[in-house]
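Re: duplicated header lines in exported C-alpha cells

Our pipeline writes sequence and C-alpha cells for each protein into one text file. With two proteins the header for the second block appears twice in some exports. Here is an export where it did not happen, for reference. First protein block:
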Amino acid sequence: MVKRGLYGQTVTVYHPVAAKKRVDKFVLREVFCQLGSREVPDAAGAKRGAAMLLVVPETERTRFGTGYKLAAGDRVLLGDGPEVAWADWGGFVPAEVDGLGVITYVLPLYLRGGLHHVEAGAWWSAGGAGAGRLAR
C-alpha cells in the first residue's frame, strides 16, 4: 500500500549512457525525495557534504530495472526536469543546478520475497565515508 502523504513527490532521474553518448531521463511520480547537506565541525573549521534520500515504492508505474534505472553517478532533480544532452552532462551538477543531487548508492529492499521499494541516495560523514563503508 502506498501512503500518499509520504510518497507525494515527483523527481526526474538522469542516467548517463556513455557508450551511446546520451542521457536517459526517467520521471518518477509518487516517490519520496529529500535533498540537503551535512556540516560537521572540526579543528580547521567545518567539513560540508551532500545528503540525499530517494525512496521509490515498487508499483505498476515504477518497476525497478524495467520502468526506470538507478545507479551510482545518476542525478536526481526535484520535479519534472528538462532533457539533458550528453554534451551538457559535465556541467549538470549540484553546484550549478538547484534541487539536483547525485546518487552514490542504490539499495533495493525486499519484503516476503518480493521487491518492496528502492532507496537511493548520498550519505556523507565527517571522515568522508558514506554508504559504501556499510557494505564492507
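Second protein block, exported in the same file:
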Amino acid sequence: MTLELQVVGDPIIASAGASFVVPVRLRNVGSKPETLMFNSSCSFQVAIATLDGRELARPDPICLSVIREPTLDPGEALQNSVAYTMGEPGVVPLAPGVYRITPILLAISKHAVGTQTVRLEIRSAKPTDPSMEQSRP
C-alpha cells in the first residue's frame, strides 16, 4: 500500500436533519512519488452506512469535467472536504444514531489504496429557543 485514504476526525459529529462537512485526506505513505489521474474537479466522495455495512447514502458531488494529474511525493497529502448537504443528490436525512463513513478516491491509481472508515454520530437537534421546549408534567 502506497496511498492512505482517511476521514480526518473520528468521530464526525452532526445534528439530525442538518448538513455537515467531512474532511478527507489522501497521503502518500510510500517511498516513491505517486501520480494520480482525476477526470473531474472532485477528488473524493464518501459513503455513509449503518454499522452492519448497509449503505444509506453516497452524496453525488457536482464536479467540473477536467483532467488532473497531481503527483504526491512521499509524505505529501491531498486534502479536501466532502459536503453532506440536505437536498443534494444522494443525500438522505439521517436519524439520530451511529453510522460509518468510508472515503472514496475519485482517481485512477496504479497502487493499492488503504482506506480508513470512521464513526459518524448523528445527534438529536436541540431547540434553540427555550420557549419551544415541551414541559414535562
